[in-house]
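Hi support team,

I've been running sequence recovery on a batch of backbones for a student project. Most finish fine, but this one hangs at about 90% for roughly twenty minutes before it completes. I'm not sure whether the input is malformed or the queue is just slow. I've pasted the structure tokens below so you can try to reproduce it. Let me know if you need the job ID as well.

Thanks,
M.K.
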């Protein structure tokens, strides 16, 4: 839903998803477990968090960084950065997400570069220029693939079932 609202307010193409607004709303209602519904006993891994965010919208580098930071509280920033890069590489290598840019009036555009080159681009901005938050936070975006959406839905369903049983 957030993706649909964001796209509508920015004039971007609505979504790369095949579901209509009504289908998306029905899915959200049927699987009504949101991030806010989770309590401390339901902590998700950074990978699970990123997958869940991918159901709602494109996931910016800053969101991945935040999820990894929460999972690794108290660790030095270099550890957080390396784990963030490892998570991104893993999610893309596993076919859960594709990397790209989000631009006003266009929406998500996948990068057409090999993964190693894409990861180096991210490292150059995120690690080398970490002090420049206005750049790295939104430097790259992850767009969930159908496999990523399926994994996120299964995760949400299992969490919902665990909470209601």
């Amino acid at each position: 839903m957030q993706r649909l609202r964001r796209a509508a307010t920015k004039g971007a193409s609505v979504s790369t998803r095949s579901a209509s607004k009504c289908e998306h709303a029905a899915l959200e209602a049927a699987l009504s477990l949101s991030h806010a519904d989770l309590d401390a006993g339901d902590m998700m891994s950074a990978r699970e968090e990123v997958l869940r965010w991918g159901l709602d919208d494109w996931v910016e580098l800053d969101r991945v960084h935040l999820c990894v930071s929460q999972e690794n509280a108290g660790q030095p920033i270099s550890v957080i950065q390396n784990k963030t890069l490892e998570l991104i590489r893993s999610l893309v290598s596993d076919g859960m997400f594709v990397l790209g840019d989000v631009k006003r009036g266009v929406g998500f555009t996948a990068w057409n570069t090999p993964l190693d080159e894409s990861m180096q681009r991210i490292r150059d901005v995120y690690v080398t220029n970490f002090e420049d938050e206005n750049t790295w936070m939104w430097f790259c975006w992850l767009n969930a693939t159908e496999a990523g959406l399926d994994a996120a839905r299964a995760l949400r369903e299992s969490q919902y079932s665990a909470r209601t049983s």
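--
Follow-up from support: It reproduced on our side and the slowdown came from queue contention, not your input. Helices lie at 2-10, 21-30, 46-56, 61-71, 77-93, 115-126, 133-136, 146-164. No action needed from you.
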